[in-house]
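#dry-run=false #mode=assembly
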Amino acid sequence: MSNSTFFLSAFFRPQGVALIGASRDPAKLGYAVLRNLTQHGYTGPVYPVNPKAGEILGVRCYPSVLDVPDPVELAVIIAPAATTPTIMQQCGQRGIKAAIIISGGFSEAGPAGAELERQLTDIARRHHIRLMGPNCIGVIDTHTPLDTTFVPGMPKPGVITFVSQSGAVCGGVIDWALGAGIGLSRIVTLGNQADLTETDILEGLADDDETRVIAMYLEGVDDGRRFVDVARSISMRKPILAIKVGYTEAGRKAAASHTGALAGTDSAYTAAFHQAGIIRVPHIEALFDAAISLANQPLPRGEHVAVLTNSGGPGVLASDALMANGLRLVTLTDETRFCLRQFLQPHASVINPVDMLGGADEHDYARALDALLKDPGVDAVLVINVPQVLVPAVRIVRGIAQVVHDFQAQSGGHKPVMTCLIGDVSLDKAIEFMRQAQLPLFPFPERAVLALAAMVARRKWLEAPPEIADGKLLMADSDLESTLSNLQSKISALPMKLARSAHEAARVAQEIGLPVACKIASPDISHKSDVGGVEVGLHSASAVRAAYKRIIKNARSARPDAVIEGVTVQAMARPGREVIVGAMRDPQFGPLVMFGSGGVYVELLKDVSFRLAPVTRGEALAMIEETLAGKLLSGLRGQLPADKSAVADVIVAVSQLFAADERITEMDINPLVVYDEGQGAIAVDVRVMARDT
Amino acid sequence: MSNSTFFLSAFFRPQGVALIGASRDPAKLGYAVLRNLTQHGYTGPVYPVNPKAGEILGVRCYPSVLDVPDPVELAVIIAPAATTPTIMQQCGQRGIKAAIIISGGFSEAGPAGAELERQLTDIARRHHIRLMGPNCIGVIDTHTPLDTTFVPGMPKPGVITFVSQSGAVCGGVIDWALGAGIGLSRIVTLGNQADLTETDILEGLADDDETRVIAMYLEGVDDGRRFVDVARSISMRKPILAIKVGYTEAGRKAAASHTGALAGTDSAYTAAFHQAGIIRVPHIEALFDAAISLANQPLPRGEHVAVLTNSGGPGVLASDALMANGLRLVTLTDETRFCLRQFLQPHASVINPVDMLGGADEHDYARALDALLKDPGVDAVLVINVPQVLVPAVRIVRGIAQVVHDFQAQSGGHKPVMTCLIGDVSLDKAIEFMRQAQLPLFPFPERAVLALAAMVARRKWLEAPPEIADGKLLMADSDLESTLSNLQSKISALPMKLARSAHEAARVAQEIGLPVACKIASPDISHKSDVGGVEVGLHSASAVRAAYKRIIKNARSARPDAVIEGVTVQAMARPGREVIVGAMRDPQFGPLVMFGSGGVYVELLKDVSFRLAPVTRGEALAMIEETLAGKLLSGLRGQLPADKSAVADVIVAVSQLFAADERITEMDINPLVVYDEGQGAIAVDVRVMARDT
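#status=ok
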């Protein structure tokens, strides 16, 4: 571990552990933790602190942490919340530099608890103690080994580190990992994060040789931008996988505007994970399926997959899953097909998926897998076996393992092999063999494909990590007006003017040039067409006058309380393709910029892409490409391509201004009308919401 | 079983079984099948046929099936393909009425095998033998019990019947079901379906008391319309769940038109399953998760779910999954919240999800579950427990089971309870208890939610099964021209006329009324705008003349080989909302009708809904409602609602004409421009492809 994160070694490899709150009562957590500390392999001294006990579980007790002898680096505290500040103070006096508070009753339990937690943080800072928790279940390190939790059992050593913001989920995961035979390296639970946060732990894992893959269960992050920076630098070297819970919460939030409704915090997480290279997975099973695959198999060079099976149905299931996850069935070379044809049954299919039929034995699997791995177009192989009575599965997987070993030992043998055995009770030996061989094994093809998709996603991210714009050079203008006129200088907008009477509206319309559109001008009405406050295609002065009157009347009757300033008269944009560019602020991650389908399709499709702002031109173009709106701009069915370059300019300009000027809380350009290549884009409606300053 | 399907009893409850091809060699299938026939509980006589053996496994052998004594109803045949016609003949002579051919080497193995299979079918018809297979693994009936397969182990008796078109998948599923402790009723594999098809089996299961839920693994169906009719009548009484493999194949097909590209066979299956009430599930795990839940729990009355947990994280995971699957978190009544508040921890959350915190014990679970079940707004409860060291999971599930039992015993107690225990090794006792109690138990909340979503889908289908249009009354017109003019009389189309010269085009344009659109007229060019063959908004005669020349030139240069008839001059539709209505024929299910987003969005969004044609007006309206296009027609952001009724008329008319006249192979109305309510819809471009007759 690097110097800056040296503190973590006091949690994972402490010289001596004091357990404050050790209990004689097997029904108490203070007993279960002592059991794990002393019976899960830790070889350093353990000092139970309990003023009323001489010894527990055969270990001598001490009346107070002050009495504990050297060496002691880590304190594990299980005590009523109210007593913990005193205990932390004593830990400081005793020179202890790392503490895990397992007890609850702090900020999760209301204001009084939050005050206690604040005191703890103060004491920790004063005494240079790093604190994990409170309200957590501590750490497990399978390599040291050390187990400060009260969870029965300890997973076998492995290279996957699991960081959890839920102690309960972590307990469940440990139990499940034991059943699934999954090896883990460090297990960290964070509790209330009074001091150490998920980002601190990530930093500590950057240079940790025992951690090859980081799997996270996240409920939120503390400092969004720091999290992204730290995670990104780690992602360059080792994969980070995360479950982020709460992904549909965004939908529940009442929203004041298009951008607000579309953003919500979940979009911010998606944007942040993209930038940080964190691979998001949908659930716990997928988290570990992907982690095991990333830990034990090379990354595929691309998304072209060969499927090898002894049964057609599962081959089709696999093909479906591949395509649904953006992977592809590779077209095998003539050589490969010729080679397969030499030894497979005459009716076997040598078109991908390669179906060797039910009679295929271990030799067929080995030869076919070897041929597929040697096909230059194949990036990864998914091997499926529906066990047959006459060919024990363990023989099949032994053959597979040998071929994988030989192939991957060659220089350039960087192709992952995922194996799927359909069944359960008859497969014990085969499953155990694959665990020992550390080869990814799945009971259903869909799970193998999901894990493979995570590997392909990682490869793609590593090959072209998103560009990061330097926000530090951006300066806000002195006042909001300047910012807005700065914006106007960077994007083309339609000429428009406020009119305060029907007569003035007609005059303005002739000035600007007919036809025009008229819109209600009111700070209180954000969805103008909802109140009958928009009329378009007005071709004459008299039409404008009549429209003015109707609009004012409609607005007054729909919203009698609204302040009405008049009517905005605006030139009409000639028709083009309509998109939206917007920006909003996320509580965790700060400024976000958005691009997507505009007009009525904004809410219908929710076809939007977000990034942390500011963005580079390259990322702006990437945002365009990942939406349906981008496909529309590329030109469909004989349409010419639209001016994506102009759109990217608008996205960059909005992202920079918005990031620089914190007074703007939200903005929308909807629609931005985009013309054919080289002909630019025009902002038809720009809506800016700013803080009262 | 009903009379018409009496044949099935000879497969499931035969009076005596002859095994033709019994073997002494434990490495042969003929041995494994005899083992299963004699050692898996079947109490009737088993007659191994093997001319060279006196006895096998202690059972007397016969030289030929002709020598087998009474009673014998079922023949299981494992023999070289070439010998099977003779064997079938002998079975017929011997009076056997049911045969299972396990051997392969028939239609799956090429033309010679197909010829053999045809012979088998002939013999079977002649001798009134019902034939299962060939190339299948036979049947298991856990109630009789009877096992004609060679798969080791037999699942415990249950109420779920599994019908599989893949023998290999079935073998894997049996093995997996054994491990998962899943009870099954009948297991049927269909092989090549030379005689008995999936639909025949379904018919036989309609009145089968041992089958409460039907789970199917489908690769295709034999006769689409008959399948739908039979399945629909069964769905009214018992749930049918299906995996249909090949769902992305549609995307791979090259497509000649919009509708063709969007339909493919998978859309036909979706439409057929909708009509038949078959619940489609994505994979094997989901198939049995849903089957177990449907078999053992009452259907929810609606989609409002309460979540009860002892840990926040999994509660959020569950909430995410509920929303992602179209279910809802119910708002609890004040009474329920007051009741929960009485006994839960002060910091527990009594807002749904109800988080009782880590200390919750079995009594808390029981009281809280009881309170939630009694809340009138709650349709279903998802109970999550992350096992805690101090509260064994088995105590929790016992409490849950008692409350569920008491509640469901009451009249009106029709609310399902799904339980999720996160973990594995520490849960053995709890898992075993739940299996005994036949309560659905899941390791992760997402799986429970997916199963619950299947139950809600079934409830909704039962409440409003899709209307069926009577296609029998439809008559095709005598010739195609009449059909088309019949269509024109039922839908509004823009006036248009073919022009064969620039001069004629200008004259026609003035006749129809300017402005007009001009489009290339060529039987060889279906995507006109791709070749520069469309110009719109032509406001003068001279503009029309110039457009004519450009269009002809563009088309000639893009497609020198195409027959060009001239240019179609068409009135311009005033702008409205653009949708598509189309129809195509599916090889399995016949005529399909389609509705969706039109214009450039057709291919971008693939926002389409299909039905088997013809459709009723009610179903046409339902099609509209299930698309984004339907939302657009409902009116977004102050738009008035569009004329859905006119769209429904067009869908019905197209579906009827298309169903009646088989000469039309495909048609598209794209766009159909829809105006505000009461103002109708206009077909701007109607494309009809007909067979050469």
